[in-house]
User: Which sequence fits this backbone?
């Protein structure tokens, strides 16, 4: 059990109230019990927090809340996320190789790992210290899992796929399948060689049933800190820069390069050989045609994607078309008179 | 073997013709054999039914079909669906816990269930009477499967996920993974707590490789009778009301609320914190921006979605733009003269 | 180890230079080592090839490259794809039924197959000669796998699904689940019978986590040579003609018919009962409304999809709307004077 004082110390917060208050969980103000931590980030939500059963509240500088113990922090929501991880830590790993796991003799397994039931690990694969592989994970020949990774049930790593440290892969993720490339000739599609690498960087999280293909001749590379949602498609040779965020059902086509800290909304489609520079924001369902560049910091929407202000302006003009047409008609009528 | 009379009784239909006719299956008119049931719902398809080898036909009131035994019903297609389930019932469950299934001691398994090969059921999970779990299903700690459920091969229920009675989950479905929410600070994305519940109601069916995330602090809730197609993404805290229908590849973002009997077309994207009221219809590929409300019974299309009549009207105006432009030019030329 | 001469013979190429040069792999010019094969298809890339460490280069007729051994071919990229398959053949299959595979007594397994760990094969299923099924594959009752197929880990074939020869299915593919069809009545959605067949033709490749549903009463049919990318949805009763190519995250709704050699871009959505004729090209994210026909050889884009030239023209007109409006205003002002 943690106390408000300990939490304040962990967060570097200024505490006001009862420092011995026990804090054991996190919740929404409405659902919170006395020992849950809650947060407020704007005066608009003050009343909701005041009415909560929670006794300990993260607040921005200068906000007072009668009857509560408050912890003043710069960003209450960020502090809440950090506090949650600290109050509700992942249970300590119970090192075990489940007897039903099938591990090739030449696989290199570090100590201190958990390999769940019915996991298959093929020749020369490597699993780093502190990693957990849940049931039905498949680690192909020569694939590498770094330290402190978490693979939920039935993740597939094709032969040679590499994931680095503290990577979390959700159920159904597939890393390293052949990219989608063919050359048509002699009456059939012949596969263009799909023999490149795929590497997923430190602290990456990838959502359920998402797919990251291996490179064709080059490499597919997901940099450190990237967060990818469910049902996302990352094609061969794609690069995604550090800390970029990719929402659900996005598709990124071959050889496209995404910069750092890019935000990609749900169902966005990016064609092949595009460049999305650092810090760009792509609105949900936007479509980027082949070979286009989205400039750093631009916010775009629509298909083909354009700056969101222009999208909205054009959209406004379309709404005014009936009016324009009637004005033209009026001018024509006047002329006839 | 059933007879036409028995079928008429089951459906509450008025029979005309040979009541002793055997009826053993269902088919399209073109592919039907003598003992298959077929249906006609409009005079347009009368000829096709007349030419079929099938001898027993579901028809709307007042429709005659020489040489066939007809069963008059209010809605032939609905009666056909009911008849199919009655003529071709799911084979009786053969209760069995496959010897390769790994079931935690603290899991509570009802009698009369079938647990397929290589199923993994973790601590304190519950499986209700009459449920079937096919190969490679994973039921996480404390997850609950109700009565008479059908989980096809390799369904994943994360810890704590709850599905109620008569739920059918197709191969690759994942229920209860972490939602996608982060707070950026100190140079990295920290996960916002994803510790809420997820509950799937009675009689829900979810298609292959679809994903329903758990709530962040609240709950994700799919109400009774909802039907969800393949490759659908349901984010944290989403609510879907009774009997709503969600076509393939739809994405519903966090904290969005869908009413009852809503129809969502394929590839629709709904951003976060939207409200879709009862009975609304969202055309395929429509996009609903953050925070929008779609009114009850509205039919919308496009991105950003608007009423379909307005969408079509605006689309029509766009087609007339070259004409408008040439009329403006003409007016300008006239003025110069 | 192959030589340049052997490769020239295999490809029917005209060789210029050292025929005894060893050739052992394929690569991009930048990454190539001396023994890798590279290709050039246009003079633009000549310099890059000239600077490569690779010594053996596929070139189009008439292109010279000092210091390299060149193999003149009609289509260097196609020859490169063929050469890659020949230089880097799939390792010879090591016939084996893994002892953990669960194979029903009534299943018919040909000789010369590899069945991986934890595969489940149900009653009356068939596996043809030379096929490989990786870990966690599930072959339902009566499903058929042809000759020389490759099923990557955790592919699901529902009961009765049929795949023919040389089919490659990537991890997470599901073939033959129930289609998505209901009839609403008596306050609930009753499933329309989903009892039809599904057949995947020779030489088809299907990407990770893609889904092909069985027919409702008819059949779902993927013809020979079709290539389907990741996360694609193929609904009940869909037909796809020979050698068509379907990019990632495409959705094809029920009873739609796709011709031969059709190219479908990423995230395209095709509603039900559409016809896409031979050789049509559907641009990424295009949407085809219910019942539409796309003519043979047409190139379309947008939602609703229209010929790409018209799409671009209309898009251009939208950009000119502010100008048109100011011209109308000017005409109005002039008139007032």
Assistant:
């Amino acid at each position: 059990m943690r106390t408000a004082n300990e939490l304040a110390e962990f967060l570097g917060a200024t505490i006001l109230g009862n420092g011995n208050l026990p804090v054991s969980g996190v919740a929404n103000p409405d659902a919170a019990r006395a020992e849950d931590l809650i947060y407020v980030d704007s005066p608009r939500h003050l009343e909701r927090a005041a009415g909560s059963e929670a006794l300990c509240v993260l607040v921005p500088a200068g906000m007072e809340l009668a009857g509560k113990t408050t912890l003043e922090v710069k960003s209450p929501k960020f502090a809440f996320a950090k506090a949650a991880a600290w109050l509700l830590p992942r249970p300590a790993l119970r090192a075990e190789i489940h007897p039903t796991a099938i591990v090739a003799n030449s696989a290199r397994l570090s100590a201190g790992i958990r390999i769940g039931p019915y996991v298959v690990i093929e020749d020369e694969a490597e699993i780093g210290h502190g990693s957990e592989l849940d049931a039905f994970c498949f680690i192909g020949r020569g694939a590498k899992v770094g330290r402190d990774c978490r693979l939920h049930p039935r993740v597939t790593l094709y032969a040679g796929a590499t994931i680095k440290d503290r990577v979390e892969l959700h159920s159904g993720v597939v890393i390293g399948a052949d990219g989608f490339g063919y050359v048509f000739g002699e009456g059939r599609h012949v596969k263009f060689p799909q023999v490149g690498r795929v590497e997923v960087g430190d602290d990456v999280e990838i959502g359920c049933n998402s797919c990251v293909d291996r490179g064709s001749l080059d490499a597919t590379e997901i940099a450190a800190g990237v967060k990818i949602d469910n049902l996302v498609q990352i094609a061969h040779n794609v690069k995604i820069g550090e800390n970029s965020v990719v929402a659900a059902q996005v598709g990124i086509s071959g050889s496209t390069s995404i910069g750092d800290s890019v935000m990609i909304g749900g169902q966005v489609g990016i064609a092949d050989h595009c460049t999305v520079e650092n810090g760009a924001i792509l609105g949900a369902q936007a479509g980027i045609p082949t070979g286009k560049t989205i400039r750093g910091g631009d916010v775009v929407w629509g298909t083909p994607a354009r700056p969101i202000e222009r999208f909205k302006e054009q959209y406004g003009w379309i709404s005014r078309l009936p009016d324009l047409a009637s004005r033209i008609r009026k001018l024509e009528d006047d002329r006839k008179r």
Observations:
- Chain C touches chain B through 56 residues (CB under 8 Å).
- Helices of chain C lie at 4-11, 46-50, 76-87, 308-319, 321-336.
